[in-house]
Amino acid sequence: MTSRTPSDLFLLALRHRNLLLGGALSTLIILLAVISLLWTPHSAYELDVANKLKPPSSTHWLGTDHFGRDVASLIMVGAQNSLVVGFVAVGIGMAAGVLLGLWASAQRGWIEELIMRLSDFTFAFPAILSAIMITAILGPGAVNSILAIGIFNIPVFARVTRGSANAIWAREFVLAARAAGKGRIRITFEHVLPNILSVIIVQATIFFAIAILAEAALSYLGLGTQPPQPSWGRMLNEAQTFLYLSPHLALFPGLVIVVSVLGFNMLGDGLRDWLDPRLSRARLSGYAQ
Amino acid sequence: MSLFIAKRFATFVATLFGASVVVFLILEILPGDPAYAILGADADPSAYQALRKELGLDEPALDRYLSWISGVLTGDFGISYTYSVPVSELVVERLALTVPLAVIAMAMTVIVAIGLGLYAAAHHNKVGDWGVMVFSQLGIAVPNFWFGILLILLFSVYLGWFSSGGFPGWDAGLWPALKSLLLPAVALATVQAAILARVTRSSVLETIGEDYVRTARAKGLTRAATLWRHVLRNALIPVVTIMGLQFANLLAGTIVIENVFFLPGLGRLVFQAIANRDLVVVKDVVLLLAAMVVVVNFVVDIAYAIIDPRLRAHDA
């Protein structure tokens, strides 16, 4: 990386809409989740059947659901669920995938071939399909959906890591490190990993968005988070039953999913441009889009 | 060319074999005992023993795998535990919905995405380009099942143009059947079109800068003719790759969308099979869906070579 002063970096971030808007939207969702740990407008678990299916009002900003629960509070607590599932699932995929990718790249030969061919097999199983297999055996639930999404992430991280790591292994400073007598493991963690970290972080941000979408889909199908724990996908499932009576119930959970996925996607795009000075400069001068 | 196809075919068969092993391991070996998985841990011992025998669980795992896979290859998928009919019958019935749905959605995706991608690239850095990019960014973030619900809300609840779900069957006539697949296909296609439009746009933009495009324009070819004859064919290569991956997503998407619109397709079958703990059906349908993904990827590989002769020359 070229050397930059903090003010240069700040100017770059300021000029970059994706990073700023994505950062703002992601922060908003994270704030919703954190605040809900301390405060929600109403209890997200308390039933109030007398006030069921009420439209938005000053008491219930986003209305109430079929049990009379406050929709705004449910959405706030649901943010915790989406973020935790996304965080742990991407964590599993990243930890296992990065290690496998680094191993493949350091060893090359048949180990690399084996890891990559195995990752090819898993491409035949999109997240929903692997989740279906896993929940068919272990039963529905948040933990099992985390596992399913996490396992689906492993080959993606393995591929990205291996690709970037191979490029680093071909560089002169790695050759110098080898000439100095450093072993493969030491070179991997001292030279290769720090140099591909930005690529992995970008990938993790984008997969965080995908994990939120996958969790919402699984919860919508009833395979993910189980009641009474609020989740956005499940809220949409329940809202569909009352589409004719209370259409507003189907709007807000969907909107908040869009905002979070949009936020993390844009943050990932923005980070990529920021952390890759070559691409950022090209973008600023209008060459690459 | 034949060597190229032979190589790809070998990879294709190996992937199919690998996928079948993965499905078998996860659904038959991981649970320890599928009979318990079906009946529950507090099952009656005599019912448990009877089911074990019925499922052939008293045989070694390798024999079970071989008899399952040879059955699948000869069209014998086993008997559904809940429906008590051959799984092949169920699958054929449901495929008549899922395959047309996926094909219609894919056709919509390709038409919309290539049109929008070309339009955006041709109007680079103008309002139209900006509009396509916003559509693409938003489309990627919208969950397809929520979009499906919004379509029901608009076209069924408010406008009353479509029913909010269900499938009358092909016997009811072509139009009623197609009509009931229209909203689900739009819900599936919009997200995929958003992604593909982006890929098409950037691929076309990259190709537009090539020397041979400038040469084509210099010798007097119109803008539109250059786009169609020279740019599009060269820009299609990455587009076709993404299309292959998207078909996999589309098939997976049908599982969710069929549940949104209450369509009796393959996705709903596998979903109900999970609810009924009918592992025989789950195993067969998951393998079938995975096999469809692998077949599509194989076809894409071959299409690749047809579009770009350099690839087959390099490989063979």
Structure overview:
The complex is a heterodimer of chains A (289) and B (316). With 289 residues, chain A is mainly α. Chain A has one domain: MetI-like (MetI-like fold, Orthogonal Bundle). Chain A contains 11 helices and no strands. Chain A has helices at 6-15, 17-38, 71-107, 109-122, 127-138, 142-169, 172-179, 184-221, 232-241, 252-275, 277-284. In chain A, helix 3 (71-107) packs antiparallel against helix 4, helix 3 packs antiparallel against helix 8 and helix 6 (142-169) packs antiparallel against helix 8 (184-221). Chain A is globular and about 75 Å long. Chain A starts with 5 loop residues before the first helix and ends in a 5-residue tail after the last helix. In chain A, 47% of the residues are buried. Chain B has 316 residues and is an all-alpha fold. Chain B has 2 domains: 2-73, no CATH class; 94-315, MetI-like (MetI-like fold). Helices cover 79% and strands 0% of the residues of chain B. Chain B is built from 13 helices and no strands. Chain B has helices spanning 2-29, 34-39, 45-54, 61-73, 87-122, 127-141, 144-158, 174-208, 211-218, 223-260, 266-275, 279-307, 309-315. In chain B, helix 1 (2-29) runs antiparallel to helix 12 and helix 5 packs across helix 8 (174-208). The model of chain B has no long low-confidence stretch (mean pLDDT 86). Chains A and B meet through helix 4, helix 5, helix 8, helix 9 and helix 10 of A and helix 1, helix 6, helix 7, helix 10 and helix 11 of B.
Give the secondary structure arrangement, pairings included.
The complex is a heterodimer of chains A (289) and B (316).
Chain A lengths: L5 H10 L1 H22 L32 H37 L1 H14 L4 H12 L3 H28 L2 H8 L4 H38 L10 H10 L10 H24 L1 H8 L5
Chain B lengths: L1 H28 L4 H6 L5 H10 L6 H13 L13 H36 L4 H15 L2 H15 L15 H35 L2 H8 L4 H38 L5 H10 L3 H29 L1 H7 L1
Helix pairs in contact in B: 1-12, 5-6, 5-8, 5-10, 6-8, 7-8, 7-10, 8-10, 9-10, 10-11, 10-12, 11-12, 12-13
